[in-house]
Amino acid sequence: MDETASELSLDPVELRLSHLDPKEDAGAREVVRMVTERAAWGRKEPAEAGSLWLSGRGFAMDGAAPRMDDTPNEPGWSAWVVDIDVHRRTGDVAVRRVIAGYGEGNGDMPALIGVPHTLVESAVSLALGQSLSARPAHDEVAGSTALAPMSLDIVTAGASASSNEQGALSKPEAQRATAPAVAAIANAIFDATGVRFRQPPFDATQLQAKLAETQPPQPIHHGVAAPRPGRIRRLLAGGGIAGFAGGILGLACAMFPGPSEIAPVAPGSLDASTWSAATLERGRQIALAGDCAVCHTAPGGARNAGGFALETPFGTIYSTNITPDPETGIGLWSYPAFERAMRKGIARDGRHLYPAFPYTAFAKMSEPDMLALYAYLMSQPPTKHAPPETSLPFPMNLRPAVAGWNWLFHDGSPFKPDTSRSAMWNRGKYLVDGAAHCGACHTPRNRLGAEKGGLAYLAGGEAEGWDAPALVGNPGPVPWTEKALFEYLRTGFSQEHGVAAGPMGPVVAGLAQLPESDVKAIAHYITSLSPEVDEAAAARAAQKQSDGADAISVMGLERGRRTFETACAVCHATSGGVGHLGVRPLMGLNTSVAQSKPDNLLHVLHNGIDNPATAELGHMPGFRDVYDDQQMAELAAYIRARYAPGQPAWTGLEKASGQVRHAAH
Question: Where is the Cytochrome c domain (predicted)?
Answer without folding.
Answer: 278-381, 423-530, 555-643
